[in-house]
Amino acid sequence: MTRPGGARYDHYELLEHLADGAQAEVHRAKDLVSGEEVVLKFPHARTLDHPALAARWRREAAMTAVFSHPNIQCRWEPGERHSEPYLVLEYAAGGTLQDWVGLDGHQLPVGQAVVWGRQLGLALGYLHQQGIVHRDIKPGNILLTDDLTIKLGDFGAAMRTTARRPAWSLISTATEGTPDYVSPEQVAGGTGDARSDIYGWGTVMYELLVGRVPFTGEDPLTAMSVRLTQEPTPIRELRPEVPAPLEAVVMTAMRRFPEHRYPDIGAVLADLDRLDELDPSAFDLSPEPPYRATPGAGEFVALMRFATFVAVSFIGVAASIIMLSVALR
Known about the structure:
Blueprint: E1 8-9, E2 12-20, E3 24-31, E4 37-43, H1 45-49, H2 51-66, E5 87-90, H3 110-129, E6 132-133, E7 142-144, E8 150-152, E9 159-160, H4 170-174, H5 184-187, H6 194-210, H7 220-225, H8 235-238, H9 244-253, H10 265-272, H11 297-328
Antiparallel strand pairs: 1-2, 2-3, 3-4, 4-5, 6-9, 7-8
Helix pairs in contact: 3-6, 3-10, 6-9
């Protein structure tokens, strides 16, 4: 049950329910001591009861406690003790970047897309310097302040690259990562690294520029798997006024194989800052061969399809039983 507005938790009062995700619910709240508006993020009970999800929650809490960057949603009070588990985060009043994608049927000005792309790149550069990969870059996880400065949030899928056993799993990526934005190497069963975030950066920029994601499908599995074999439609075919150098930067960030992308986000930012000097013909954007899945990835996809089939079948059987019961009354 969603927590009601007006409820108090320590010295915070809930003002508005913002979101209810798979692992947590999020509320706008007021700090009754400072008077500032903040965000409270409460883990679901099932999250804390699940060993892997609980460990993931603790990892997110530990990461956000040390963040300090103008383009990252940081913790409001990393050292405070609470009466129950929840995070207190910065509040960004401008909504999310998702609200600006295809707004009222109008395309986002190219210059604004570049500004936000640079800010997102700076946020990723900070994370990567800390040895952290976000792994779920998408417009819905990118918040906006009143002055339209972005703040990257939601670190539930984030991973420390310096961890002894940085593992990919259904819980850590397939469930929380978003099919429209996850990188090909993660779809194919890989852990993902900083270059996976670069792919996410490119996908977000593509969507901001043309108003839709580069790959879609009739179901999430198709949306993920199609990027292993197909090329995205060039940006300028969909929006000719986008400068060719900008298209080259974004399409390079979205290359199917990590080694064909930019080596780091710093190189992306360097090209963004000199678009007028770039020669688009110098970029290799030729078609790439299909991505070969890592061992076990085929079995994973098959398992996911089987699980989906079982779930749908179960729902159908349950519905039939209910209808039959009603008919026999």
